[in-house]
Design a protein that fits this description.
With 360 residues, this protein is an alpha/beta fold. The protein has 2 domains: 7-110, 2-Layer Sandwich (Enolase-like, domain 1); 129-357, TIM Barrel. Helices cover 33% and strands 22% of the residues. The protein starts with 9 loop residues before the first strand and ends in a 14-residue tail after the last strand.
Length: 360
């Protein structure tokens, strides 16, 4: 990727911000109440008022760079921006969320520091991106409340987190939804976050397939390629790899994973896989191997979500994308991103409020 500035003249700073969930988010890995993110600001010393902004947001228990030296590495990057090429090619490959934030900030700076990274109909406010409605785990009543709310808002694709409550209760929820809406009326995706035991996963997939689901994300835990390949070959329900992609860095390893497991879909989260360049590699390999894909945010603030959405729009993928996380937090960065019905759009009549970054 080419930029129109001199790396030797770049400076950078970062700022930690703790996002607070409006409603605690339940997953098979626990309940999320807060979420730490790091905003990265990159600028030329001669013109500090024009800056690029990125977001580095490792997820506990999931990101390979959620480590004790994460902030030290981010701080070191800010001090050694003149060595940017070395960071890209070497150390930062183990810090995918920093790579994503840096790539976003540099793209933003390249385009004038206006939070417009890509030129397309989405960024120009002419088209929206169809997104799925996210249903968090919880008891049956809580999940049903969310489902009814999303349906009332106009969503025609729902993604349900499963694997934490009683499986029979989850089946009952799906049975109720299907009694009200056919597969032609409502697309259903489920995400197990690796919660199933490989020994009985196929049995559970068979039960889930009764409800004409679009797909299931990561039915068993990652790093079990042989077991996952067997499931993908035998499943009555399309499988989408999610956590499986994390930590798979070089293009050769990506190709090996897809050829060995042969999933029906892959799901790309730039914060977890190392940014847009890595995502582009995954997409090219998936399409070459006739594997479907879609993109998903990973609970970033609107800074990260904006970048992912703009990149996603450049591909014109008609499938619902997982980009509905911008409304989850009480103290998000105010932005032109807007959810209307089941579409994420940019309202260019609204502006960014970056007052949260006043100390950077």
């Amino acid at each position: 990727m080419k930029y129109n500035f001199n790396f030797d003249k770049l400076e950078a700073a970062y700022f930690k911000h703790t996002l607070e969930f409006k409603i605690p988010g339940g997953t098979s890995r626990g309940v999320l109440k807060t979420r730490d993110v790091y905003f990265l600001k990159v600028y030329e010393a001669k013109n500090p008022d024009v800056f690029g902004l990125g977001e580095c947001a490792p997820l506990p228990g999931l990101s390979i760079d959620y480590t004790a030296d994460f902030e030290e590495t981010l701080s070191g990057l800010c001090v050694h921006m003149f060595q940017i090429d070395n960071f890209f090619d070497q150390r930062l490959t183990q810090y995918p969320s920093i790579l994503f934030g840096l790539e976003t900030a540099l793209l933003d700076l390249k385009n004038g520091g206006q939070r417009k990274l890509f030129e397309n109909n989405f960024t120009n406010g002419k088209e929206g991106i169809r997104i799925n409605g996210l249903i968090w785990m919880g008891d049956k009543e809580f999940m049903m409340q969310q489902i009814k709310s999303k349906l009332a808002s106009g969503f025609t694709c729902l993604k349900l987190k499963i694997g934490a409550i009683n499986f029979d209760d989850e089946l009952e929820l799906l049975r109720y939804i299907r009694s009200q809406f056919s597969a032609d009326q409502l697309e259903l995706r489920v995400d197990a976050n690796g919660a199933f035991d490989p020994n009985n996963a196929l049995e559970k997939l068979t039960q889930l397939a009764e409800f004409e689901l679009h797909s299931i994300e990561q039915p068993i835990a990652a790093r079990q390629w042989k077991e996952m390949a067997t499931l993908c070959k035998s499943t009555p329900l399309p499988i989408a790899l999610d956590e499986e992609l994390i930590g798979v860095i070089d293009e050769e390893s990506k190709e090996q994973l897809l050829k060995e497991i042969k999933p029906q879909y892959i799901i790309l989260k730039p914060s977890l896989i190392g940014g847009f360049k890595s995502g582009d590699e995954w997409i090219q390999l998936a399409e070459f191997n006739h594997i479907g894909w879609w993109n998903t945010s990973a609970l970033e603030s609107n800074i990260g979500l904006n970048a992912i959405a703009q990149w996603t729009a450049s591909y014109k993928n008609p499938m619902p994308q997982g980009l509905g996380t911008g409304q989850l937090f009480t103290n998000n960065v105010s932005s032109p991103l807007t959810v209307t019905g089941e579409n994420l759009t940019i309202d260019n009549n609204k502006s960014w409020d970056l007052s949260l970054l006043a100390d950077v």
